[in-house]
Amino acid sequence: MSKTESKTEVPGNIRIGVSSCLLGKKVRFDGGHKRSRFVTDALSDYFELVPYCPEVAIGMGIPRQPIRLVGDRDNPQAVGVKNPELNVTQPLRDYAHKVAGTIDGLCGFIFKKDSPSCGMTRVKVYNSKGMPERAGTGLFAREIMQADPLLPVEEEGRLNDAGLCDSFITRVYVYARWKALLKSGVSLSGLMEFHASHKFLVMAYSNVVYSQLGRMLSGPGSENLHETAASYIGLLMEALKRPATRKQHTNVLQHLLGYLKKDLESAYRADLAGTIDAYRRGDYPLVVPVRLLQHYFSIHLHPYISRQVYLDPYPESLQLRNVL
User: Fold this and answer.
1) Which residues sit opposite 48 in a β-bridge?
2) Minimal CA–CA distance to 319: which of 46, 109, 108, 106?
3) Is the entire prediction scored with pTM above 0.90?
4) How much of the chain is helix, strand and coil, in % rounded to 5?
5) pLDDT tens digits, 188-242
6) Dihedral sign, Cα of residue 236, residue 242, residue 248, residue 253
């Protein structure tokens, strides 16, 4: 298999950090867990799930006194709910800082929502009057996200949204491919190949960003190649955070149909075009037109399309596009 044909190959053993309670580990303050069946039953077949529980790691024990965030939402304190004199802010920050120095091997992180340590967004922060405001971030999650702004992160509750889940898993695989590219050595030809193979995937999220990324690679010299690469992946990962719309997918599907116009008889082209339009109207999930395109491109081979990540950005058996 040629290099261009192996565009969807990513390193085996992709590692994702996960809040331990989501894996069914009984590490919560009450001795229970918050197992996520999607994480344990679906994602565990494709990723190495690395558990983290900050409270247990700093020696709080199981069960333990619950904690909450109080004070400034941007710099809160983690104190006991029943005993405010219990303050574990610094131990949690020290542990988070330690872990942050070891996450280079991760390609994603799934946090427990609402947790004062692991909540990614809208965590309750209590003011001086004891009134909560959903405006905080868990101390551990904040440190991890600051340590690697490119790292795909999500909360388990948000993964119930089909678009957000597709976006997260897509980012994990894109980041894994990117890390593999960096490991092999940054070169202009490597960056151009990466860009070319992700063309339609990026277009599904933003045509504007795809053009911007192309301009970034229009002529960087060797002296600023690493700077260009850093800017490139930063813009790409940011663009992939917002779920692609049905309209954007339809645009990409129609572009792909254009590559078959000389190969398919008019009746087959019309049928495929009709299927794409039915997807646009919401009659079919994304998997239907994508599967038809995969079928036709397996018969009518196009070297350029064979390089495209869009048609299989992650294992089809995850079935994420069945509900998009």
Assistant:
1) 15
2) 46
3) yes
4) 50, 10, 35
5) 999 999 999 999 999 999 999 999 999 999 876 656 898 999 999 999 999 999 9
6) positive
